[in-house]
Specification:
The complex is a heterodimer of chains A (285) and B (151). Chain A is α+β, with helices and mostly antiparallel strands and 285 residues long. Helix content of chain A is 34%, strand content 25%. In chain B, helix 2 crosses helix 5. Chain B starts with a strand and ends with a helix. The chains are: A alpha+beta (285), B alpha+beta (151). The interface between A and B is medium-sized, with 29 and 30 residues. The structure holds flavin-adenine dinucleotide. Flavin-adenine dinucleotide sits at the interface of chains A and B.
Chain lengths: 285, 151
Amino acid sequence: MSLPGFDYRAPVTIEEAVALRLELGADALIMAGGLAVVVLLRERLARPAVVVSLSDIPELQAVAVNGGLRIGATATHAALARSKTARSIAPLLCEACGHVGSPAIRNMGTLGGSVCHGDGASDPAPALLALDAEAIIAGPRGERRLPLVKFFLGALTTALNGDEILVALHVPRPAAGTQFRFIKYTATSAEAFSTVTVAVSITRDGAGVCSNARIGLGSVAPTPLRARAAEDLLRGNKLTREIIAAAAAAAAACTNPSSSAQGSAEYRRDMTEVWVRRLLAEMPA
Amino acid sequence: MPHLSLTVNGDKHELEVPANRTLFALIREDLGLVGTKDACRQGVCGSCTVLVDGVPMRSCLALAVRCQGTHITTVEGLKADGKLSRLQQEFINAGAVQCGYCTPGMLIMATALLAENPRPTETQVREALIGNLCRCTGYVRVVRAVMAAAS
Ligand SMILES: Cc1cc2nc3c(=O)[nH]c(=O)nc-3n(C[C@H](O)[C@H](O)[C@H](O)COP(=O)(O)OP(=O)(O)OC[C@H]3O[C@@H](n4cnc5c(N)ncnc54)[C@H](O)[C@@H]3O)c2cc1C
């Protein structure tokens, strides 16, 4: 089926994009990589008068170190998977981006698109949550920053207002010695969305006591998730077998999965426990 | 209607293209290059894959207007001087084609892989082709053909 008719605008600066967004209001649909947008158009799930493409805004593609890491919203998964700059601060995110879909999907899809789509099955989102990332949002009243945990409100629903665009994601520089682990666990081929995606970030002091823990989960709830209860169990403790088992069980209890071809709800919850446990257990002391 | 100028398989085109035209429709319907196939129209199957400035993309999910000034390569563009590319010839030698519907996408993906990595391992070949589905399940010979083209 062909796509319904719409006009096309491709601003070349962020200011222009924000102005267009304000001017067009609900008539506009923002497009980054277009992977979700073109399907929404084809299925008539969105009927915008105008598609506003962000692809011609070079500033939005930049990946730069500024204390932490600033990632332009339209940096592609492929660019991030091979970016030395991104890897210098957020190797966990690079690994997650390298597991999105297949090579051609990574060439087209953007990190900002993945976040703004608000899909609970995003692979990069759990990594961003484990890295304590912030969304940098531009709107008619200027820029605001929002911790990513507060960005995901529900299935395909985010905290982005109708007159705003996501311009970048900011990842703070992790404390020295922080360890990371990532798994995209798929029951079928690696190309499909995951059964569960787990991203872990752990900081321990010289005595092996965990001073900070963040666990991001994907595909096990309507939104990407932080397993707060599991993190609380880890913080202040050594990663003993017992603590790890308790944290893994707590992470599974945080989930609210649904059943799909990638696994039943029950299997997803079980695999969350298994993979949180394995990732924590394999971290060298 | 937006004006689009782009190069397809070395030929320059100047076209008036509606904003809602996909790159896939432009290639097949406006330019008549029917080697590029579609099946799922959701980016999953890989049969519509073409090179945009050398980079594999799903033409079913790309708006044509976004391809302003780019160089597109479709399966028809893999020949050089009227001769099949080494990779194409190896597909024939290996019998890597059954119904042939997925073949253009496989050839495009593997061409991009070999351009970037002329000596891939078998695992790298399989990873590169993970998003190209063959419903005749002929993957073994496809991988063999790509490995032969790389040798
Ligand atoms: C075949 C296929 C397989 C996939 N497999 C995976 C997978 O394994 N793992 C995974 O995590 N993902 C996967 N995806 C999802 C894909 O990675 C995301 O859908 C994609 O990254 C969306 O990004 P995009 O740049 O194409 O966004 P678009 O489709 O352009 O936009 C998505 C949504 O976000 C909005 N938007 C985009 N950018 C902005 C912005 N800067 N500001 C405001 N709003 C914005 C759009 O309006 C739209 O609502 C797959 C997709 C396909 C088609």
